[in-house]
Design brief:
By secondary structure, the chain is of the alpha/beta class. It folds into two domains: 119 residues, NadA-like (Rossmann fold); 39 residues, NadA-like (Rossmann fold, 3-Layer(aba) Sandwich). It has nine helices and six strands. The protein is elongated.
């Protein structure tokens, strides 16, 4: 589970994170992207975090990639690019910043690093997992290869780097053919 208290304490050393209606109002352009799903009281609470993260992002020359499943304040408030796993992998190859922050699950951060090895890749929650990615291992592939020699192994994009490396080909829902 992500330790919000630790993040809050670290950010609070450098930024004022108290709920701030004035700051929330100043950031109305960002809020307009999420006002249908985030009420004004919550936005006043999130706005200092969004402002702090955006400032830190500029200071560190970071690019934030956010999966479609992220909360509105991340998706609309701090991300530079958002989309599904494939879209984020493509954006990782084009990232101009020194740091890629992958707001998603572990395999997405691995993919970002593989596709852009010169960048530092960070993931806010190293425990963030995906049940699909966790359903197969490289050891499982080795067992299948032993049982079915010569059979090609196709893995889905939502797998770990270890599984992709053990596979013959990797597909996505948009490039798989029947």
């Amino acid at each position: 589970m992500f330790d919000f208290a630790r993040m809050r304490d670290e950010l609070a050393d450098h930024y004022d994170l108290a709920p701030n209606p004035a700051l929330a109002s100043e950031m109305s352009e960002i809020y307009a992207k999420m006002d249908r799903v985030v009420n004004p009281v919550d936005w006043a609470r999130y706005a200092p975090y969004v402002a702090a993260i955006n400032k830190l992002k500029k200071e560190k020359n970071a690019v934030i990639l956010a999966h479609n499943y992220m909360t509105p304040e991340i998706y609309h408030g701090v991300s530079d690019f958002f989309g599904d796993s494939l879209q984020l992998a493509i954006e990782a190859t084009k990232a101009k910043g020194d740091i890629i922050v992958q707001c998603g699950v572990h395999f997405m951060a691995e993919t970002s690093k593989i596709l852009n090895p010169s960048k530092t890749v960070l993931i806010p929650d190293v425990e963030a997992g995906c049940s699909l990615a966790e359903s197969i291992t490289a050891e499982g592939i080795a067992q299948m290869r032993a049982k079915y020699p010569g059979a090609p192994v196709v893995s889905y994009v939502n797998t770990t780097a270890e599984v992709k490396a053990a596979s013959d080909i990797c597909c996505t829902s948009s490039n798989a053919a029947a």
